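Hi R.,

Here's the chain you asked about this morning:
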Amino acid sequence: MNKLIYFDNAATTKLSKPAFDAMLPFLGDGYGNPSSIYSIGRDAKNAMENARSRIAEAIGALPEEIFFVGGGTESDNWAIKSVAEMRRSKGRHIITSAIEHPAVLNTLKHLETDGYEVTHLGVDKHGQISLDELRSSIHSGTILITVMAANNEIGTILPITEIGEIAGESGVLFHTDAVWNRA
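And here is the predicted structure, written out as tokens:
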């Protein structure tokens, strides 16, 4: 008997049973547009708002701080471009690592065509950045540090707590792509 062993869970993972069960009604008859005014749309909106509140409570956020998107690439693109636009008058320097997902790197490449400066921190043989290099790369025009939580190809778990502390001490916003984070 051949048993499938799936090695690409970092890219696509089967839904857990609780997640599948929670979504099932909306994959059948409860597929209404949550922006509409008819009953199945209102039901879908109520379910979405309930999920938003539960997620917010679980992570200590406000419900209005939770946004639903179609996937990781859309989320990275939206977060990075939003910060760039929002903080444009404060500076145009963004710091990232050399091993980021293309969703981040391509967004940053696009911002470079709009006059943003991007510093790509190198990594050691284990895929780790140097926190000293990060600190020395920050200057008065730095508006964002974006570093993934866990690399999807080599499995490195980056020190996001420490990166967040450095960003906070410097008054720089910090974004992390935590799509693959199993830590």
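One quick note: The domain at 72-175 is CATH 3.40.640.10 (Aspartate Aminotransferase; domain 2).

Cheers,
M.
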